[in-house]
Amino acid sequence: MSSPVLTVIGLDSATFDVVDPMLAAGELPNLARLCDAGARGVLRSTTHPLTPHAWATIVTGVNAGRHGIWDFTERDESGYQLRLVNGSFRRAPAVWDRLRRSGRRSGIVNVPFTWPAPDVNGFAIAGFDAAAREQGLTSPAALRDELRERFGSLELDNAFPLTDGKLDLDLVRRAASQKVQIVTWLAERFDPELLFVVFMPADHIHHLCWTDWDADGLASPVAEVYRILDEAVGALGQLAGDGNVMVVSDHGAGPLHGVVNLNAWLASQGFLAYETGGGVVGRKLLGEVLELRRYLPERLRYLAKQRLPGLRQKAIEHGDYTVLDWSRTRAFSYGTFGNIVLNVHGREQHGIVVPGDEYERVRDAVSARLLDLQGPGGERIVARVHRREDLFHGPELAKVPDLLVEFDHYAWLGKGNLKTRSESLWDEIEIEGGSDHSYVGSHRHEGIVVLAGPAVAQGAPVGGELVDVAPTLLYLMGEAVPADLEGRVLVEALSPELLDARPPEYDDAAPAEFEPERAELEEEGTAEVERRLRGLGYLE
């Protein structure tokens, strides 16, 4: 096996706020070697700094208005219901799609939003977004059974490391160790030129234990997870041989001060109205009962289908219940980071806001009042309110909410739920039931990038954005950079001798058509993914 030309190690949510104190204490020797031998710096994440949006931007080099991956879910044609998103919803090619056209070999493991596993010239294991245990997990498909035969049960790091509600770092160790073993075996077999592997545990431990990091530092579970990840970085660094290495995170992390129920706030400001009377309660209860069928074992689901043949249709009819009165609602929120959608006539199924002047007046009014929103201590907690077209552009812009609420350093989150009424402005993010832990950490804009290898200028400071990863990666692979990419090659991190010998080359050809067929999980797979995302706090 030859060394990969480039090995990309993704550490989801890794932050220098943890890395630097641990480097200073000599706790991360493998990351230290890469930093000492190469270049490092902060990469600014997307707004919002959310896993699906951020990783899709990393691998495509374009904004969400073009690649179309905004959140874990997207609104359906009615404008109100949410459906799960997966990698087949992406509308822009990833770097491995471009490399496949050039006949280059890639190995892709656990990159978020790569289900079903992409067709690459090499191998792929799907990311945690929809990593169903059977359907679409690997490419080639037969690889799934080969992996299980050789490695046993796959320890995928796509859920919080909890056993019976208690923190279990052995799960993190086993998953990281097995992933390194799997990647090593696959790399020796397929000899990839690009090796791209992502680890999720830093994100999970930040959400569960950031207060422990603040209190205990190097003695905290956060520090222990980083030590485990550092071992994995060392093993993959050895596998990289004399090739180049990039360590990158999709966003940073920090403490969570609170959660704002944006629908409760919109109601208090007169932009949203809840239904009154008992009808909505009955529909809500029936919808919830019918929804439970998806979580039954397959045998019991079959019996229910046989004995209650109209159950599926009733589930469809009642699954769209809401506690909102659309005839009196001008704006509503969904998700967990700060999204506000206007209820627009002709766009949403029961829209009442007239496009044009009225739309802009409502949007301006919501934005202005949000900037005055105060926390329990009287502090202002909203840094900015963005109109979607000020941040994004492209054919997928309609998937982005009309307004994006950027809370101060993302130390606050904005929650929206159309099926539950809350009278309180203050809320919480719910995670796996019965856990001893709560959601105490959140994301930040400041992610990390470390570059090392023969192409890198030692000690160079680096600063950029997530869209810069794809063009930099393609340059390091010796490929021309498509002119339609929105990022730049991080030339400050690269050897001046290399840049003189091989300046970045740009491809002005029109982008090739990229319209993959959308894939849907089987019903039991959908239920599995929904359970996982709900346990992570990303779904209501």
Under CATH, the homologous superfamily of the largest domain reads Alkaline Phosphatase, subunit A
Basic shape = globular
Q: Give me the Rg, rounded.
A: 23 Å
Number of domains: 3
Task: Provide tags for this entry.
Alkaline Phosphatase, subunit A, 9-stranded mixed β-sheet, 18 helices, 540 residues, alpha/beta
Explain what this protein looks like in three dimensions.
The protein is α/β, with parallel strands linked by helices. It has 3 domains: 6-254 and 441-535, Alkaline Phosphatase, subunit A; 258-274 and 322-427, Gyrase A, domain 2; 276-321. The protein is built from 18 helices and 24 strands. The chain has a 9-stranded mixed beta sheet, with helices on both faces. A hairpin with a 4-residue loop joins β14 (331-334) and β15. α7 (169-190) packs parallel to α9 and α11 packs across α13 (311-318). The longest helix is centred in the N-terminal third of the chain and has 22 residues, at 169-190. It is globular, with a radius of gyration of 23 Å. The two termini are 46 Å apart. Residues 312-318 have low confidence and may be disordered.
